[in-house]
Amino acid sequence: MAGLDEHARHRLFVQWAVANVPDTVGADVISVAELTQKLFADAKALGIGSVEIEEDIGSAYEAFLDAIVHREAGVAE
Known about the structure:
With 77 residues, the chain is an all-alpha fold. It has helices spanning 6-20, 29-45, 50-57, 60-73. The longest helix has 17 residues, at 29-45.
């Protein structure tokens, strides 16, 4: 997976988030931190480092938090 370009890694992140972020997760610090750590562990198993992920999407923590807040507000795309 190390040969993936930025767009492919971004799609992988989105697909991972859809599959791994339950509707019941709230925007609390612990839930978001646990999701971030799980993402990094799963990505590492695929040969993708946390630096690569955050180069593509910015802060994974902030991306999760933003997605959850928007979903809770009913404006998720």
